[in-house]
Batch of 2 targets.
Target 1
Amino acid sequence: MRLVVIGGVAAGLSAAARARRSDRSLEITVLEKGPVISYGACGLPFLVDGRVRSAEQLTVYTPEYFRKERNIEVRTNARAIAISHGRREIVVEGGERLRYDRLIIATGARPASAGITLHTLEDGERLKRLILDRNPKRALVIGAGYIGLELADVLRRRGVRVTLMEESGNVLHREDAGLSTTVRAHLERFGVDLIFNARAPEGGSGDVPGFDLAISASGLKPNVEMASEAGVEIGRTGAIRVDERMRTNIDGIYAAGDCAETIHLVSGRPAWIPLGTTANKMGRVAGANAAGGRERFPGVVGTSIVSVGGLGIGICGLSAAEARRNGFQPASARISAMTKPRYLGGRPISVELIADLATTRLLGGTVTGEDGVHAAINVIATALHGLMRLEDFEHLDLAYAPPFAAVWDPVLLAAQQLRKQAG
Amino acid sequence: MRLVVIGGVAAGLSAAARARRSDRSLEITVLEKGPVISYGACGLPFLVDGRVRSAEQLTVYTPEYFRKERNIEVRTNARAIAISHGRREIVVEGGERLRYDRLIIATGARPASAGITLHTLEDGERLKRLILDRNPKRALVIGAGYIGLELADVLRRRGVRVTLMEESGNVLHREDAGLSTTVRAHLERFGVDLIFNARAPEGGSGDVPGFDLAISASGLKPNVEMASEAGVEIGRTGAIRVDERMRTNIDGIYAAGDCAETIHLVSGRPAWIPLGTTANKMGRVAGANAAGGRERFPGVVGTSIVSVGGLGIGICGLSAAEARRNGFQPASARISAMTKPRYLGGRPISVELIADLATTRLLGGTVTGEDGVHAAINVIATALHGLMRLEDFEHLDLAYAPPFAAVWDPVLLAAQQLRKQAG
């Protein structure tokens, strides 16, 4: 019995490792089109800014590790170019054909636009050299998703004057005018101009007049062409459709990671939110099931966090506008509070909660602040998984001691405020 | 219609303020036996160590504030000594009688043993002076609850050699041998000797041979005598029995805060865990309901956090031993991980999760580490409120970006490990 995994980054390697744990006799081969496997793509901005010294620091495992320790064959520079499911064969660039019994597609995503981007380890090294060579004074970053925000942060810290252009009116792909305003104001103080509803320069991030450097971070698209050609169903989001066991419509073929869609547990609808955390989880489930298990991945609640100019920004669930579009009757409230007592260094934090008026179910949250954002957004995310109602959320038994927190946790204050407003 | 509240600290003042918001015409009187109201008792260790400069910094509101801004009469140095429910009267020390229609008992708790303790603002100031005057070289702290641990921390930071004696084998009242061992080893490196199963010196914390200073922090007991004499039912825990609306057995009398018991949402049994956070929440519910509302306080999950010698310790739910005693079939697993990538200053953290084998329901967690403890324990606490099963907990969509977290959050690694072990 042979399992082939296409893709050797987050989802693919999680899947292979998990499959091996389930079945010691399975023959497992991972095909990775690039020269390295298992790198932490989320660390790329820190490679560019020098806090990560070398690409090796971001590479967690080597093919040798997988071969020796896990009995998994990992081939780098091995690009799968076609799936011939009738014959249960993968065609690899160069002509080789590889038989499989079970297949996991973990082909990831790629930048939606051309030019200088930050997606692979090579991109990171290239961008770092470019910055050192050109020593730019003015840079343009296109796209205010988390990569765009992190790039703006990294460049600004090097003294570069940054313009951040975003096609929509949103940051982090979140339809939330309040958040957009907050982030723009903060970035302005930090020396980054954020321009919403901007048309990106033609030709992507090539040479743009007025800027010494232009980088495109305007989103990703899933790598689904090969799967689609093989008859694998693509969902409404444009990513591969899978069920909660990570099965595609074709028996024996699974998909996981940035190439696959999942369910948004708040809206109940298919969603495509490519993130390393989700990719790892989907990969584990796909690997377990491809090896005969019955694991399920329930879905996501759209949690995201980013740090820019010293401000932490955390989001999860739906914004009020998104909730309305999804058929809820949302109410929202925002509070500002201190993360802990002033005498122990408390910092201001702002928490917005969104709930459905009809059911009082919590629908989402947005948190901004210099501290405490991670803890707050994780509590909200966990409550969203638990389908918690506001009156239960308000009474959460959260940890308090002055070195850590305020006696009224900011998320509880926001819940009180929202209940007060919602009457 | 007149509401009388006995007690002007956390629960009492939360109740009075909440009642006022519900009913603008209610006549509200708060009786506080001490000279000040509304102080943050949890800040007392930081008053002793100087990070809080003066008692005023811990006093949030004054009686004048309540009178002017909330139209609530707050009397300090007014000790209620009897409740005559037949006449709907409170007898105040000195002989005055005060009529009520609704009564909220928020009489709090007191140290279980005599001698030098740390419970009131006066205690804090007295202890601070004592330390300055005596300049102790060796101190004894009796009791390894959170006050005892914080006192040990504060004294040690002043260069005092501390012996911490605990009657049981547990820290933080948690039946958890692993945690006890971890904390003792950590304290030893920090210069604090933690002795378990120790008999406290007779006479409490008076002069103890071999020590320049002895402080008792061996727990609290609820102030329920006056309530009990008036016919208010005392629960099995020794605190006042209330329902989820904070009603006692006597119509028109509510109780809230450290004098009242509540439900432990994991065990489903009555529990008495006196903490400021819970007191505030119970107070709000009692106040709303005494003013005609229908709020409910569902209960607690036993969350607690403390910092000692740079180590954060967070607990919630039940330990494995406690779970067994409560009729569950617990399994537990502990993992060590990094809070975030090393290149961004990640620190080690240890997470133990406990779940029920029969239902796979999560039952509790213990977290120790120099960083990230607050965020981790709050996720576990929220999941306990949501009655979450391990396989759902394992897939929580928690926030990740390198400045904040690791791609596999430590709590998720612990869940994976526990599922693996539990088979």
Note: Residues 276-290 of chain B form the longest helix (15 residues).
Target 2
Amino acid sequence: MIPRYSRPEMASIWDPATKFRIWFEIEAHACDALAELGVIPKEAAKTIWERGGKAEFDVARIDEIEREVKHDVIAFLTHLSEFVGEDSRFVHQGMTSSDVLDTCLNVQLTRAADLLLKDLDALLAAIKKRAFEHKDTITIGRSHGIHAEPTTFGLKMAQAYVEFERCKERMLAARKEIATCAISGAVGTFANIDPQVEEHVAKAMGLEPEPVSTQVIPRDRHAMFFATLGVIASCIERLATEVRHLQRTEVLEAEEYFSEGQKGSSAMPHKRNPVLTENLTGLARLVRGMALPAMENVALWHERDISHSSVERMIGPDATVTLDFALVRLTGVIENLLVYPERMQENMDKLGGLVFSQRVLLALTQKGASREDAYRFVQRNAMPVWRGEGNFLELLKADKEVSAKLSDAELDELFDIGYHTKHVDTIFKRVFGKA
Amino acid sequence: MIPRYSRPEMASIWDPATKFRIWFEIEAHACDALAELGVIPKEAAKTIWERGGKAEFDVARIDEIEREVKHDVIAFLTHLSEFVGEDSRFVHQGMTSSDVLDTCLNVQLTRAADLLLKDLDALLAAIKKRAFEHKDTITIGRSHGIHAEPTTFGLKMAQAYVEFERCKERMLAARKEIATCAISGAVGTFANIDPQVEEHVAKAMGLEPEPVSTQVIPRDRHAMFFATLGVIASCIERLATEVRHLQRTEVLEAEEYFSEGQKGSSAMPHKRNPVLTENLTGLARLVRGMALPAMENVALWHERDISHSSVERMIGPDATVTLDFALVRLTGVIENLLVYPERMQENMDKLGGLVFSQRVLLALTQKGASREDAYRFVQRNAMPVWRGEGNFLELLKADKEVSAKLSDAELDELFDIGYHTKHVDTIFKRVFGKA
Amino acid sequence: MIPRYSRPEMASIWDPATKFRIWFEIEAHACDALAELGVIPKEAAKTIWERGGKAEFDVARIDEIEREVKHDVIAFLTHLSEFVGEDSRFVHQGMTSSDVLDTCLNVQLTRAADLLLKDLDALLAAIKKRAFEHKDTITIGRSHGIHAEPTTFGLKMAQAYVEFERCKERMLAARKEIATCAISGAVGTFANIDPQVEEHVAKAMGLEPEPVSTQVIPRDRHAMFFATLGVIASCIERLATEVRHLQRTEVLEAEEYFSEGQKGSSAMPHKRNPVLTENLTGLARLVRGMALPAMENVALWHERDISHSSVERMIGPDATVTLDFALVRLTGVIENLLVYPERMQENMDKLGGLVFSQRVLLALTQKGASREDAYRFVQRNAMPVWRGEGNFLELLKADKEVSAKLSDAELDELFDIGYHTKHVDTIFKRVFGKA
Amino acid sequence: MIPRYSRPEMASIWDPATKFRIWFEIEAHACDALAELGVIPKEAAKTIWERGGKAEFDVARIDEIEREVKHDVIAFLTHLSEFVGEDSRFVHQGMTSSDVLDTCLNVQLTRAADLLLKDLDALLAAIKKRAFEHKDTITIGRSHGIHAEPTTFGLKMAQAYVEFERCKERMLAARKEIATCAISGAVGTFANIDPQVEEHVAKAMGLEPEPVSTQVIPRDRHAMFFATLGVIASCIERLATEVRHLQRTEVLEAEEYFSEGQKGSSAMPHKRNPVLTENLTGLARLVRGMALPAMENVALWHERDISHSSVERMIGPDATVTLDFALVRLTGVIENLLVYPERMQENMDKLGGLVFSQRVLLALTQKGASREDAYRFVQRNAMPVWRGEGNFLELLKADKEVSAKLSDAELDELFDIGYHTKHVDTIFKRVFGKA
């Protein structure tokens, strides 16, 4: 968790203080259920909530105890007893440490998921706004980095929009994957604790009971969660890469926002680097790379081993904090993106209309020219344009064999950009429900 | 795609012959829609279906043409025209190669998903059968490879069952991710083809229209698909690892089925190696590793580049064929698994009842012993048992301070295995809806 | 192993026929050593070489036997006996299958390494040629995709050259990693075979004896080998990405060679897609992704399990064949790359000299201007240039405060490209030993 | 960088304070060279060393300046000027930020490599000690988790020893990969700075000049570095997995050291969990997973983009700190490993001598029995032993057809463990140069 790439909202989910608060809530809810079942006194459960609820847990103190007892949950319980007093002996009855640890991790991941969902909503809103703003902003579509046919900048945004809408669906599924709770004991048999306790705590914490836990909550859930983050990160990379391409000196159809005050902007006015989207590219690599260790975590030995723990201590915070940061950064990039429609037009015009060659070819064929002839007619007019000698439309009009098939008006129509944008509304309706 | 790890059902999905048949269907359905729109003659569409439908495409011939024209779709269309005749000029009107290629890939992946879902069903059935068969087969639960508390072999199976049920849910979601169709032209603007054609083809092929394609179907869908296969592979690894552990000489609580005729089984009767589950472990590594290239495929440049293609040519068949093979192999392993309940009991008995020490500790505390005292009492009886000197229950009964708190009958009850299995039915009901 | 991305030279290393030939050689060399030690008759060893040496092994026949005996090495030995006759009983004495399998795999990987080294040499030669050809071809250096300072195309090539020279060093190290031989028996103790046999076979096959094998050759060697291939693949991706950038429509400083006959080249003369380098980008993802399963293969259980085998059956051929193909393809791309120096100059000129702004700033400071003043002077002349209004050098000359510090001659000199290329020779000497 | 898995020695390399000290040294050495070249006054260089050398850089203050100027190197230089005074204007002349940043990163990685090499030496020493201690400690060798043939615990250690010796070689190569320095300016042309400055700084910092840098040092070097760490981590996983297996309840041939005082050790004396080696397994997953992002970092755009930076900010510290911690932890595990030779013998004896069946088979064949007969004789005596009915050696002696071929003395000899250990010295000599 690099402070530079962290937002406090997400980082705080991984604070020791947050963790201990969640631990307390799990324990206290369990006490409620145990009291209801008559295992511990109702009065004790009440006291635990009252005193523990007000307690300000001292992380340093807990660490100190842990160094002595070499056990994190015992250290916490010892510290808790300093607030709760004698009734603290009723806390954690019949439970194992993993009941607390695994349920807490899932609470943290669920909260992280909620924040990521919020981030995705903000990103979607930003993209949607730019999509409608530039619904009709003509730009050249590029395949293989080479000019292909015209499209609009709004369509680029619409593409990104549905892609991140899919990411939202995936995130919702990933959230569901890890929103489970286990209070099931040493090997998950509920030998020492009634399953009703698990049900109560699950409900109280906004989770589902884990159908079968084995001291631990099965790690396929977490693998799927982190794999999903990896896919979302890759979508971030895609949009970031688009911006990086658009900003390069020779293209310059869009730029990351660059405040006037930003150092160096004026002496080297061209030197506005797409550093935010480059950074997002790197962050995507990081988040993606964490999917693998998470998948390797699935095959724990027998009912559990603890090899997953070190992995999760790192990727739990790192993947969520990094993805949260990246989503928010990308949202800012899109919101503030400087878009240059004139430059888009200029770039498209550079090829003197050659991007319409395919359509001319098709029209000639439809007018009865053989494929070979049509090809030859188009070719002999395309080549000079390519060498920078002339405008494609003008040359075609001047070509006798072409004009024998297509009138000037028909040729003009072939070069009509409207041909390419006529279904923009259709696509927008698919994506946004309106155009 | 290694023949050794392939099943014909899945391999055939990736046959060139299958691919060309799908290409034909996409083209022919598109002709229907174009005919309906009046773009091409209805009679032509009919002829195309009739002649193409009966045609036996010659893969070698298509390859030969491709070597000449250096374009796979053109090669196919040329070959198709050899069957269809003159009307073949109406085929592919207004379409680009990617319309055919990407839609075909998704048809193949969808079919692969259907087969994997069938595999999962068979695996689930196999696991369920063994789960009920061994619902009450007592075995020691192990954390960290060390004996913890008793559980049942049926619970191990129930755990695997819900894990693969989750895999099925994930597979369904992954199938939905890639069941889309794009017939949208060079940069996805439908400039040369009506969106209704895409809608028709999608419906006819059992797909959804891709909301925004850009010549290509966006690769975040495929990334999610392959990431999901990676997670499922990791679940396979988990169950395979369990079998490998159970089969090791010192444990031997279960074994992969070993036919009497299998070479070497009798001269070295102990040398029955869990080679199938070891193999599954390796296959899991392979499938998992393919998730990363799939994620790197997402960030194509602008409207598309073709870097994804080589990746998919390899991992498309490899990941699905390997996972299919692995699921079927695992199903066989589970169906035929030799389970040794007596050996499970023997292993559990080896520790002379020490696995009950925790419960004795708890009982002593509940009877009023201080935590420190209880610990001391248990410890002094546990240590000789650990050294192989005596039985834990007997020693406890003979310990005066223990017997002052717990009667022989009470101690017997603490060593009752029923204490640990009392909620097996509860868990089975959660998992299977019945116990 | 996709035929499309395979060269016969590398693919043949992985042919079953090649494998069986290597198996034969290992067995026959072992017989020589056993005969020398007096374990088997010298005459038998001679017969084995003579008859086996001439034998044409029938892969289909061996497969057939394997289906029956379910053991690949036994199947081979059975087939071998069909050629060798009675003396075949002396073959494989005291050896285990892994002695043959693991040594053979390393022979194959060593041969693959040799081919890859040859590929690297050819690539290096191609890059070097283009480096000297374009040593002085001025082009703009770009950081963040934005024009920075001038460099030369030759320097770009020189950078690639040293990078692939490092790859060659790495490949040599990787070759050394896997050039080992093990003939050490069931758990590597040489219980049934003298270590001298291993030493003899190793020498005869051009390998080193594995210091400690445990039935298998330790897989950290293979992990390092495949990780190295992954790094080399990433270097291929770097150079491929450079070409893809240079070829994009707006830049077009270089292009993959495009034969005149290639379909579509003239009707859409701009539509020359960098499909080879895009393909290389995808191949790099594949090879890189195989490093992870190879690393997971290291932690075999105890003396060995067989989980590595399925992984290696796939990535052994796939990684080497794909990298070989990619290196050869990249060599072709570089050899035939169309380089457009004029376009490089044009692109550089587009910014009206702004790339020299930094140097002007520095010169003004050196002439005594405060940093703030210098910045202000440069800025007010840079901005109009940026807006396309004027040439930077002219504006500076016309600026009184600038000309008070720098004469026209001095300014001219600041815009001298020679300033930027003065150390090209130095760098070439570092890289090529000459300039 | 998780404090729990960090050692101060390695963590301190990544301290901001360390970084700024290295930045200072790079700048000051560059001043020396610039002074020598007459670019700046010698007196200034001297002052910079004197004042900067004594300065205690204030990290918080630099951060504060950075927030204002939004540039880390400028922030540092500003802070430095607060100590150095007016001569600070001679610092950084003709250099770019990357000259400082990239050279510094390589200094840090080189120091990290040195520490890792020291760790490897300590680990090797620990393994060697245990190897000689247990050179003759008989234990069963296991393939596929199943008893195979006897080996010694010392041989297991010897295997680990050579494996980590290879890791040391790899680490040395990795160190060499990243021990380079670049002071070459905006696109690496030395336009504004003489190459001699780079040579001087390189030498002074213990580095080699980077032959061709392009503002940045090429990232294939770092990819190779991190890939190497991934391989070493995988070797750690192998040895850790061995310990985990040996410690499991049913095997218990070795245990991680467990201090008497450690909580819970006596009440549940069997519950000594191999938590350190499980932890190492997880740490290996983490380090391995970082190789991929490092490889993706190689293909920077043109002369450089900054996508690598965020990746390195995370994996630079994380991979080195984690691997350092893991190596030291593994060293402790090996040094203190509790080894139980008696238990090893007991486990081996469990199969009643069946592990010698292969050798008996061989001996019978050598005595003239046909393979089929030999197999049958062995089989009929092996099966009862396998069912727990009798001792293999006794049964063989009582078998008439066996005793017709092999005398009791000969049979005894076949069961002689010395047969399996006769080459231990040979192997030790290979590994340690002595036995």
Note: Chain D has three domains: 3-90, 97-347, 354-414.
